[in-house]
Structures are given as C-alpha cells and as structure tokens.
Amino acid sequence: MANSNSSRSGSPSPARYGFSDTERAEAQLRGAGWWSDSGPGNAEPIVAALSRTPDPDLALHSVDRLRDAMAGEWEQLSSALGEDVELRGRLFGVLGDSTAFADHLVAHPDDWRRLTAEAAPPRMLDERTSLLLEAVGARGEGEPGTGGGPVAELRGHEAVRALRTTYRGLLLDIAARDLASIPEPALPSVPYEEVAELLSDASVAALRAALAVAVAELRHAGVSEVPRLAVIAMGKCGGRELNYVSDVDVVFVADGEADIPVGTRLASTMMRIVGPAFFEIDAALRPEGKAGALVRTLDGHLSYYRRWARTWEFQALLKARPVAGDRELGDRYLEAVQPLVWTASERENFVDDVRSMRRRVEDHVPTDVVERELKLGRGGLRDVEFAVQLLQMVHGRSDEELRSASTLEALRALGEGGYVARADASDLVDSYRFLRTVEHRLQLRQLRRTHMFPEFDDADALGVLGRAVGFRSSGRNTAGQALVAEFRRHAKQVRRLHEKLFYRPLLEAVAKVPTEALRLTTAAAEARLAALGYGSPKGALRHIEALTSGMSRRASIQGALLPVLLDLLGNTPDPDGGLLAYRKVSEALAETPWYLRLLRDEGVVVERLAQLLGTSKLVPELLIRAPEVLRLLADTPALAERDPAEVATSLRSTVSRYSDPARAAAAARSLRRHELLRIACADLLGLVEPDVVCRALSSIWVAVLESTLDMAMRDTAAQEGGQVPARIAVIGMGRLGGAELGYGSDADVMFVCEPANGAEETAAVKFAGAVVEQVRRLLGQPSQDPPLDVDIDLRPEGRQGSLVRTLDSYLSYYARWGEVWEAQALLRARAVAGDVDLGERFCRAIDPIRYPEGGLDETKVREIRRIKARVDSERLPRGADPATHTKLGRGGLADVEWTLQLMQLQHGHDTPGLRTSSTVDGLRAATEAGLLAESDANDLIEAWTLATRVRNAVMLVRGKPGDQLPKKSQERVAVAAALGYPANVDTGEVVDDYLRITRHARAVVERVFYGT
C-alpha cells in the first residue's frame, strides 16, 4: 500500500503535495514535525515549498538524511524554515534537484546557515579567493602563485580536502540562489548570465588558491624562488560563462626561458591539486596541444601563433583572459595575441576552415544521441558559439564593440551593430539561455559533467528536469512534455539561425577584404580605391563618409557592407557611377526597414546589385521607385522565370479595382515599372534570353494598354449616362505587333471600333474617339519612368487621320487609297487589346491587303526599295555612324525587317508560314518554304538579335533610348558587359563582332532585298 492516497481513512494525504510514496512521505514529514493527523497544519508553507521542488520525493528524503545528521540542531533549522522564506527556497531548491549538494549538507550540516536570509555569501572574486586561501592557511598580500604572494600552510591531501570542502560551499551558495525561486516563486530568479559569471569567478578563485598551494609544495621540495608564471583562462572560463561542472581550459606563460623548468613544475603541481579539489583542468589548447610544452614564454607563444597556428587556435584565443599568477605578464600576453586574433580572418580559406571544424565536431556525435546532445548536436550550444565567433572574427577587425569573450555580449553587440538582425540576435540569446539553463540543471543533479538531454520517453526524468527548468504544472509528465516541446523549438530555431548566419555568403567576401581596407576613411583608402579602378577616389570617399557617418545602426551595417561592395563595384564598368547610384538608392530607401537587412543577409543580392549599379543607369532610377524588386535578386526563379501571361493578368486585375482614372493609370505605371525593372535586372545578369526579354516587355505594354482602355471606357461611359455604344479593339503595329518591344520602344497601335448595343455608327465613333484620347492622355502623363508613348501615326492618313475608325472605314480606305508602304506596315498588325472578336476580324479582313494574291508587281517592288533607300539616307540622324546604327545602319534592324517584309508581301498569300508578325519566325518560315537559304536566314537572325540586344543594352546603360553603339569608352565597356562579354574584354573586339555580324547580314540584304 506504499502508494495509497491515504494511510488513515479521512485523513489528508501527502499525495496532494506531489509525493509519490505517500506512506514513506508521511512518515518522513511526521518525523520532521511537519505533519499530523490533520495534515501539515502550521508547517503548510514548508510542505508546499517541498511540493514545488523539481523532485519532492528526493527533497524530502534529503531532508530526512539531514535531520539525522543534525541531531539536536534540527529543531533550530525546522523553526527557521517556517519563518525564513529565503532559507526555504534555497535549501529545498538544492535538495529537490541535487543529490550531490544533499551529500555535502549531510557531511557539513552547519552549512545550512549560509542559506539564510541574513547570510552574506561572498559576491566578489577577491572574497572568494580569500575564503579558499584561508581554508589552506594562506595569508598575506600579493597575487597567489607569485614570489610575494600568500603561501599555503596546508599541503597534499589536507590542502585538497580543505579546498574541496570550501569550494563546494561556494558552489552551494550559487546553486541555492539559482534554484530558490522554484520552491518559492516569490523569490527573484537569478539570470543565467549572473550564474555563469559567479561560477566562473569561483573557478578563478580556485585556480589562484591552487597556485598558492602549489608554491608551498615547491618550497617544501626545496625551490626557493618562484618563477613568473601567468595562467590564461580559455573557453568558457575565459568568457565568464562556466557551467556548474566544466573542464577549465588554461594556458601557461613563463616570463623567460630560464623560468620554464620550474614554471613547468609549478604548473604541473597546480594541475594535480585542481583536479581532485575542484574540477578537471585542461591545458590542451596550448601550442601543439597535448604534445606541446606545458609552459612557454610569451615569445614562444607568439612565434608559434605566427608560424604554425591553425584557424581554430585563433578562434580559441577569442576567449583568452589572464586569471591567475603574474598579472603583468598575463596582460602582456593578452595584448600581444589580440592583434593575431583580429587579423586571423585574413588567412586563406579562413571561413571554410571554421565551417569545416564545426562540421567535424558535429560528425563525431553519435547519430543515436545527436538530437539530445545539448552541446555538440544540431541546434545545440556549439551552433550558437561557432556562428557568433565566426561573425566576431570577420567583422571584429574593424569594430571593437564586437571583441567580447562572452557569447551573449558578443551576440548583443552583433545585433546592435547591425551585423545580425535584432530579432535573430534576440532569438539566439533566448535559445542560448534556455539551453545553458537546461545544461546547468542536468549537471546539478550529481555535479557531473553532462550535456545529454534525457530520453524523450523517460517521463520521470523529463518531469523532474522540466520543473527544475521552471515549467510549472500539476504533474511531472506535463512539465516534461512542455520541456521537450520547448527544447525542440529552441533547437530548431538555433539550427535555422546558425545556418543563416554561419553560412552567410557575405562572410567570405568580407573576410577577403584586407583589414586596413575596412577602415574606409583612412588616407590609405584613397590609394586603395584608385587601385580598385575608381576614377575619383576623393569623390568615392565622400560617398563612403556620407553612408557610414554617425553612430546609427544603419551606419554600422553600411560599414560592414561597403568594403565588399567597393571591391565588387571595382570589377564593374563604372565603379564611380555604381557607388554614386548605391548612395542614392541607400538614401532613398533609408527608412525601408528591410533594405540593409537584405543586403547583409543575402550575399547574392550584394553581388548582383553591385553588378547592376556599376553597369546601368536605368536600374537605379527604377529601383528607387520600385525597391521591392531588390528582394527578387535573391530568388532567381522569381526574378527570371515569371510567366508574362501571369504578370499581365495580375496587372489587369489590380488596375480594374480602381474607379478613378488617374489612380488606375498610376497603378498601371507602378506595376509596369516593377516589371520593367525585374526584366532589366534579369537581362543584365544574363538570366534570360533576348527573345524572352522582348516578349515580356511587349506583354506588359499590352497589359497596360488593355487595362487603361478598359478603365477609360468605363469612365467615358459613366460620363455619358452609363451606355457603352461601341466595341473597341487595339491593333498592335510595328515592334509591339511583333512582340519585339525594347526598353525604350513606343507602342505603335491603331484603334478600330464598331457600334454596340444598337448605337449609331456616328455615336460609336465619337465615343471611341473620346476613349482613345483619354488613353493617350493618361499614359502620356509626365513620369520619371521610360515613357508610355502611344503612337498612332501608322493609321490611315497618318497624323491628319481620325484617331479611330470602324472596320469598314479601314477597309474602304485601304481599298481606295492604300499605298504599298501601308500594306507593308500591316504585316505586323496583331490584335493586342480590347474586343477580341473585333480585333481578330480586323486582322482577317486585312489579310488580302498585306498578303496580296499574286504577290507584288515589279513596280511595287521598286517602290518599296526606293522607300527603303530614302529612309536609309534621310532618317539616319546627323553624325550617326551607319556602320554601328542598330536601327537604320547597314545590317541593322530595318535591313533585316524590310527584307522579310518584302518576301511576306510577295509570297504571303501562297505561303501561310510567312503570315506572322514575328521577324525571327518569319525568317525561319521563309527558309522552310525555300525562299531563303538557311545560312542567309541565320545571318539575318543573328544580326537582328544582336542589334536588338545592343539597342536594349544602350537603354539600360545610359538610362535613355539610343540606336547607336556608344562611342564613349566607358559606355561601350558597359554595353559589352550588358551583352555578356567578360570584364576584361577589349571594346574593339565588341565593335569588330558587331561589324562582322551586320556585314554578313547586309550582304544577304543586298542580294535578297535589292536583288544585286
């Protein structure tokens, strides 16, 4: 009946207080004087506090053991427990979680007094050191372990026992205050950082006391003169973040070669004392590890680090801190090694080495425990520490705020400095605290070194640990389940952020920048900028100063980004223009919260942005007004693989929501700007083919036309009483009709209408005319974007003709007055917007005009050739070079298009494949029909494609349309980059390629078009 709910019928049971073995618990409570037949009575606060401990049965059992050990003093402790809430919390906190501290209290019952409210435990390092020195009879001034320092009276086993007992009492002070708020929630909890610092200081005090005993041992052995020896703490002790049970990593430094033999004896003796008295001491982080000399001089250390040290050894030095022995020597050691730490990231493959080290550590964790390994497993403490240390060593070269040995202090500095997102830094701090707290609670149980989370199906162990961590519930299993859920959440969060930060591409780029180059405003920076290719280093420095001035977080992030960005821009055609553009974009987006965060976290965005800004003037102009496209630079499919039809549908849907014409037109322009920039970025980065660019640009133009037409029809109808008296179709002409628009192309169109809803033709034409006027007005409003010019000059009678006609009116005009050039213009006519049926009927109706039966007679062929010659001579701008003019030059766009169009007029009636508005498709159809040799078609297609690409590249580079291959060297280099040529290409080679390709095309034009 050990687990029955009540041992006496009707009497209260200890089960309600969480004790499992109720009969045993009742007996122990009665023995302590805390239970009677009516329950706990006045002792209820004591029993309630016991019930809130992580393991109430263990706590009560330990109380029973302590009562036996105290004999006559028990009544005094029992009485104090009833009155002193701090004593209750502290004593039950340790007894309910730690068998090791229960053993200590049973062996030293008087130590309960150090847990009372009146007790004043040592708070300072010197106080702890003094207590340990007093325990071994060492008194006097000076640093322990030095020639003038205190020397212990006790030696050997006696000294070890005295030190061990005193040190365990110091740990009891810390643990009792750490755990007190669990049984007594009214007591304040102690932050993890404070606990870790107290444990670290206790360990330093232990090292100093051990040195005093070691000096006594050496003097007893006949050594009269103590050598100068410094003890350098490494790892968690160096960072003041020790656990309850940790190895303490140290390095020993002697002052001179003559001190090494005796210094080695002193260090060895100290280590022999520390092990059994306090904790394991590990000197394996010294040069050459366990195979190396235990003690070296400062020069010996420096010589090794400069010549032989591996990357991980500099990482370990991040936490180096002199803690014992000769203070001046320790300070000199730290001062000497710090510069090596903060330049280590310049080593070749530094970032890869650190990452490889983390992977090797992780690979050594057995797969069956990797999920439960708090320290080394995925999402464990090492994930946080490695990420923080890597970021520190890369960015700490130029930012001294990051040079902290504490993981959490460094993490906060990284967040405040902008190197890590504030939210990410905060999440990592929370997770690190949680994992370290769990680690502390695991170790407290038996004061053994462990980092292993309990088995996930061990409900009892999980329940105890969950309550020790602070999860409060009505049952152990519930606390355990909450603990497991929280542990998995934190592990997942740590792993996600570790991979985000530890493998951030920007790290490699920053690490490759020399340390002196990170100090961007020094005099040497001007020479470096000139070496990078900046034509105006002074101007570049002004931009840098403007971006990095002040103490803001934004300036800190810019300070981290700019060294990398300057290098990247230095490899672009226009570094100065790119840096100026970057400054303008940064200033325009200064209040955009995600802008700098995106650049910091996504290395590919920085690389691509530098390439774009150093090549194009159009991109930064658009980017300032469409910054959201910047996000797409990190997502290649979203940037380069979006379906034009999907884009068009989205635009039409968005614009249709607006009832106000001006707002609707503004929305259309905004969406078009977004797409124009997206396409331009993908084009400049070489992610899309030229035909895809043209189709996408044409598609977005069509969507803008269609949405604006729809909105104008609705608005015009509303003004005229709600009636829509006409159907309207938009016929794309020229490059729009061929879906071959470039970045600076106008939209050549014609508008056709017909009466609807029983309206008269006159009313229909009037209504359609008003709609067209509004479309042109709305789209033609001034804008900083490339213009939305709707060109209707190809309509019958040109600029003198009506804006819109009915289908019959068009056919009547062409039948009576149409000229051959108008038939030629209709070859590229395609219904693009408005009433689909009307548009298609229009195209079918004009087929006999553009594809005449019997082709063209010789007179009309000569007329076309005459017009072409006239265009070549009269429309070529003054001063233009006909050899490199993409539109009207030899072998350029007009040459190729007129050649195809002549064949379409001659053979389109009999060759259905020629009935296309696409230039490339038409040339291929001519080849299939045997009208054009395949080699000739390939020459024409290659020249047309190159001229199209050059024309687009000029627009991208200059930010304004241009048909001439640039003459300025820098613009020509930028055009070459936009065309995909390597960075070091001779621009003469670009020109030669263009001349060669267009010359071949011109030869085909001479034979096929002119018949020569």
Automatic annotation (TrEMBL):
Biased composition (Low complexity): 1-18
Superkingdom in the source lineage: Bacteria
Protein keywords: ATP-binding, Magnesium, Multifunctional enzyme, Nucleotide-binding, Nucleotidyltransferase, Transferase
Residue span(s) of domain Glutamate-ammonia ligase adenylyltransferase repeated: 153-334, 607-843
Catalytic activity, as annotated: [glutamine synthetase]-O(4)-(5'-adenylyl)-L-tyrosine + phosphate = [glutamine synthetase]-L-tyrosine + ADP; [glutamine synthetase]-L-tyrosine + ATP = [glutamine synthetase]-O(4)-(5'-adenylyl)-L-tyrosine + diphosphate
Cofactors named for this entry: Mg(2+)
GO molecular function: [glutamate-ammonia-ligase] adenylyltransferase activity; [glutamine synthetase]-adenylyl-L-tyrosine phosphorylase activity
Region (Adenylyl removase): 1-506
E.C. no: 2.7.7.89, 2.7.7.42
Domain PII-uridylyltransferase/Glutamine-synthetase adenylyltransferase: 361-502, 883-1007
KW Transferase (keyword) present: yes
Segments of this protein annotated with the region Adenylyl transferase: 514-1012
Disordered: annotated span: 1-22
InterPro entries: GlnE, GlnE_rpt_dom, NT_sf, PII_UdlTrfase/GS_AdlTrfase
Record function comment: Involved in the regulation of glutamine synthetase GlnA, a key enzyme in the process to assimilate ammonia. When cellular nitrogen levels are high, the C-terminal adenylyl transferase (AT) inactivates GlnA by covalent transfer of an adenylyl group from ATP to specific tyrosine residue of GlnA, thus reducing its activity. Conversely, when nitrogen levels are low, the N-terminal adenylyl removase (AR) activates GlnA by removing the adenylyl group by phosphorolysis, increasing its activity.
Family: Belongs to the GlnE family.
Protein name: Bifunctional glutamine synthetase adenylyltransferase/adenylyl-removing enzyme
Native source organism of the sequence: Saccharopolyspora griseoalba
Lineage of the organism: Bacteria, Bacillati, Actinomycetota, Actinomycetes, Pseudonocardiales
Gene name, Swiss-Prot/TrEMBL: glnE
